[in-house]
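Ops channel
N.P.: pipeline sanity check, posting one input/output pair.
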């Protein structure tokens, strides 16, 4: 069950990162007329990636705690 959830989350994560990348490139093409690769873009992407996974993992833990508390009632 947990492996299946992680697989689904991982798939959606990759789709989201790809979609954000395409939108980012589209905006650069719109505003600059070309894609301008910069190292700062890579750093921002890494930070957003880490924050996305942390939010997912913290949400899972919060959901587990809520479920445990509901079963105690």
């Amino acid at each position: 069950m947990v492996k299946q959830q992680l697989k689904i989350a991982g798939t959606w994560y990759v789709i989201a990162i790809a979609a954000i990348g395409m939108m980012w490139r589209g905006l650069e093409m719109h505003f600059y007329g070309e894609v301008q690769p910069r190292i700062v873009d890579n750093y921002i992407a890494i930070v957003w990636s880490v924050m996305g996974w942390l939010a997912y993992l913290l949400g899972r833990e919060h959901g587990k705690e809520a479920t445990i508390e509901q079963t105690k009632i």
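N.P.: looks fine end to end. The first helix runs from residue 2 to 32.
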